[in-house]
Every structure is written in structure tokens, then in C-alpha cells.
Amino acid sequence: MPTCCVHLLPYHADPRARFALVRAAPGACLLDGGRPGADRGRFDLFSAWPEQHLQPAANENGRAFLARCRTALAGLGRAEAPEHCELPFTGGLLGYLGYDFGRRLERLPAQAVADLQLPEATFGLYAWALVSDHQRQTSQLVFHPSLPEQRRGELIALFEAHGTPATPGEFRLLTPFAADLDAGQYRAAIERIQAYIRAGDCYQVNFAQRFQTSWQGDPWAAYCALRDACPTPFAGYLTLDDGAILSLSPERFLSVHQGQVETRPIKGTRPRGRDVAEDKELAAELLASRKDRAENLMIVDLLRNDLGRSCRIGSVRVPELFALESYPNVHHLVSAVTGELAPDLDVFDLLAGSFPGGSITGAPKIRAMQIIDELEPTRRSIYCGSLLHIDSRGEMDSSICIRTVLLQHGQASCWGGGGIVMDSEWQAEYEESKTKVRVLLQTLERLSGF
Questions:
Q1: Disulfide check for 222: which of 171, 201, 361, 438 has CB 3.0–4.6 Å away?
Q2: Does the annotation count 436 as an active-site position?
Q3: The Chorismate-utilising enzyme C-terminal domain covers which part of the protein (predicted)?
Q4: What is the model's pTM?
């Protein structure tokens, strides 16, 4: 079996200095574990200059697009990691699926306005990556066997040069962020969701509001400021032709390693306290909350069903339930669902059967997505989609794109939301939707002098 070539570099815990060398290149994509500020992500990886660019055609359904991605990956060819070298990526696909890619997988209404022009999915096919393993404290260039020797030498020279990369340019918002919905509109939407719950249509619906403003300057400067303020284990930066996706997500969607599948849904949130005593009190309140535990359990059941479509019968388990994870701005309630991929299925089948993630739709999933389309005035674009990599061996890891800012066409968009159940109080949900993204909005506003 062909094997990747690995070129060792000095270990860097923070990938930004090296990624800055390529961040303006076509297809530059960083999947960032948030080290050293965050401590849960084992790997960082990034690449640029893809061999191939993939986006869905106008009327192409989701499974057909994923089949094209499978074919492109097979064309690159499987490559193994060298012996005694653990790698999450040996060449393959990097990119995103937007939340609205789900429309290509399920029949959904079209009431929400599609006012952001981000393609519903974009992948590049990459024959190299720079990977850092924070457990082993190694950094290495990884070359797929198909990458020409000359190109390998150019990349080695680029990353071994001792010059300092250019500092980020300036970034600023032209005005503070403004919400798309006022409190009255938000309340009416929550009451409508609760009417659907009373009628038996659904058990839970994830409802979000959008915050927007105009921007100018260098998106990389914005990402660096956000990462300093809110390091997270599933962060990412993806260069667009006229902007970037900046994601500071704490949530894994799906990972596949040697056929073992894991998803880690977040459901349940409290703000961090102003002092140690208040912080402990808020964390204990979250852990003891019957409402939040019930909400979390509904999504765990939904994800057990989603994984069951693609996993070996009897293999789906819940090894972790209602664990506390704490971040600079919030505490979260997190669970884990695992399974073993069925022998006749692959990661593309898993994505087709599970996307978008149930933690950001509600239950039952399709009815919740229909209600979201009815009540959210605009489509979600990258919000609640996924940044992901799929390598030549079929290994995958992916995020849920919450805590994410889309910078495109001079417009900055950020979303905050939460799961609505029968005993939700609209005022508390309204405040929670702002709490979840306050650190992002305020960081960019302070960077802009507001």
C-alpha cells in the first residue's frame, strides 16, 4: 500500500504563524485545535492550493454530490501513514457543508430567504498538509505519494524559512452588530414553536437569530483576535474569494477513526460567573437542570437513530452522558454517542444519513427543520453546517459550525440560538442566544473601536 512521506518540522503548539504563510493562497483551510489555550483538540492541520475544487451543481442532490466527492478521493488514491506515525490526514478533502446542504438530502420548504451567497458546500482535494500532534508534540509536513518531488521541496523550503510571516492587516467593523429580530419577534417565534410542541408536531426545535454588520480589512486579523478571546477545540479558518469563514466551535459533529464513529452533541448552556463562587454555582445549576438534561437526552436519542443508519447493528452506545465542558464565555452540557461503521458503508454514507447535526435542528429532525425554515426569516448558510476533513483512508473529523462568523461581500454575519422545549421561557432563551456569541461580537467590536 502506498505510504505518505513525512518531513519533520519544529513543533508549534499554535498553528497561526505557519498558516499565515499560506492563508491568502487559493483554497487555504485551517482546522485548528485552539492550542495552547484550548486543551481538548489533539491535532491541527492545514493546507492550500488544492488539486481539485468541488461544489454542488445547481440541481444536484446531496447524495450525488457526496458520490462525486467519493470518486475524487478515490482518484487521489489511498495512502497510509508511515509506521509508528499517527496522522489524522494523509491527503484528501478539506472544506465545509453549509446547513442548507441538508436541503439536498431531505425535502424541505423554501420560505426562509437565501440572502447570503455562500455555496451550500465546498471541498478541495489536497495532496499535502501540515499536521501538528499536540499529544506527541510533533509538527510535520505530510505529502501524499502523488505530489511531485519538486512541489514537496518548495513546501519544505517555504516552512523551513526563518523569516517572520507578515503580520495581519487591519480589520474593522463599520458599525456594531445588530440583531435581525427584536424581542417581540423572538417571543412570537418561541410561542409558535411551543404551540407546535403542544400539538404533537415536535419535542424540541433549535431556533436562532442572526447578527449582522458591515466590515472591511483583513479577515485573518479578525480570526486571530477571536481565537485569542475564545480558544476552542474545533475552530477553523477557510479562505473565500471575497472573505473568510471564521469558526470558534466547541462542538464535534462526527469523527471516524479506524471505523469507529463518535459524535459529541452540546445541549445545555450557562454563562461563566463573575467570580469563582458564582462560576461554580452556575456550573452546578447546569448539571442539575432537569430541563437541560431532558433537552440533551432528546438529542442523544435522535443521534443514536442517525448513527444507527450507518453503523453496525448493535454497536451504537452512549459512553458519556451530561458531562460538563467549560469555555471562556459559557459552560456546556455534552454527551457522546459512538458506533462502528457498517462494513459496506463509508463516511459519505454516514454524512448523508446524519447531516445536519441533530443538536442544532431539534427532534424529530425533519419536522424541526421545517419549522426552522418557517420561523427563521433567512437561511442559515454556514451556521450549523460543518467544517471537516476526509482523508484517503476514510478517516474523518468534523465540527458543528456554531460560534461562527461569515465574512463575505463586505457583510459580517454571526448567529446564536438554542433548543426550545415546552417549558422554555422566551426571555431566558433570548438572553442565551446572545450570551453564546457575545464574546465574538464584543471582540470584533472592540477591535473596531466600539
A1: 171
A2: no
A3: 185-436
A4: 0.95
Check residue 162 and give its pLDDT: 67
| Cell triple for 193 | 414553536
The answer to whether 251 is a known catalytic residue is yes
Grid cell for residue 364: 424529530
pLDDT above 90 coverage of the chain, percent? 86
Task: Give average pLDDT by consecutive 10-residue segment, the chain, 450 residues.
Answer: 94 94 96 87 95 96 98 97 94 98 94 95 98 96 97 96 76 96 96 97 96 97 96 96 96 96 90 89 90 88 93 95 86 93 96 95 95 97 98 97 97 96 93 92 95
The CA distances from residue 124 to 96, 206, 387, in Å, are: 9, 30, 12
Which residues contact residue 235 at a Cβ distance below 8 angstroms, ignoring those fewer than 6 apart? Answer: 31, 32, 33, 34, 38, 227, 247, 248, 249
Q: Residue 163's pLDDT is what?
A: 65
Question: Which one from 262, 267, 432, 436 is the annotated catalytic residue?
Answer: 267
Spell out the long-range contacts of 141-144 with Cβ–Cβ below 8 A and sequence spacing 24 or more: 141/6, 141/7, 141/9, 142/4, 142/5, 142/6, 142/87, 142/89, 142/90, 142/91, 143/4, 143/5, 143/6, 143/7, 143/91, 144/4, 144/76, 144/77, 144/79, 144/90, 144/91, 144/392
- State residue 38's pLDDT score: 77
Domain topology for 5-259+341-447: Anthranilate synthase (3.60.120)
